[in-house]
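Sequence in, structure out.
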Amino acid sequence: MSELAVHFFEKYGIMAIKIMSKWELKRIARAVGATPIVKLTTPSAEEMGYADDVRFKEISSRWCTVFRRDEDENKMATIILRGSTVASLDDTERAVDNAISTVKALIRDGRMVAGAGATELYIGSEIQKFAKTQPGLDQYAVEKFGTAFEIIPRTLSENAGLKAEIVLAKMYKEAATSSVFGIDCSDGEVKDAAEAKILDALDTKSWAIKLCIDVCLTILKVDQIIMSKPAGGPNINNQAARRPDGYDG
């Protein structure tokens, strides 16, 4: 802002805020329903936003500019987290971010699948059954691909302090007839995940599996071996073999 612009802001009692971040500018514009413009003309009524209250407020020893808009069509809100340590704040922020992402995913696609590792183990079980129908050495690759899906229930079991082999054996037994039996980490029992209300978003799980498979295919497509070479400079081994008089013969 130039000094002349600040002069007129003070003269006519206009509140002005200098924002250097383009990302923050877009967030404020969305919060108040305004449209960012670059032309030096008077903004139209459609381009202007509205806020019920704008003030400079101290929050946890930090001064912040707060925009408040109490409207039903408001599409943005700010959640302020406070804690005693940085680690607790990071955990809380991660939990809030996961919750918001889950709500966004369910708004896009409300379909759910059984959680607790039930879906992954059932997929792995079906792939291993399909592997037995493949001829030649292909069945070993397909079977190992199906076995890789065990990592989710195995990790859940180990994090809960359970014996993964016993849990996987019980889950494979139930997977022969149903795709909803998973491990409940609260009591360590293999149960119906749908009845226990342990569910995952279908959209999130499907994309996780797709992207994981894409990564594996990309790695397998690498057909060149990248070998490390020594950095430039004199070869110490050759120098040690030379005679003091410089004769190399």
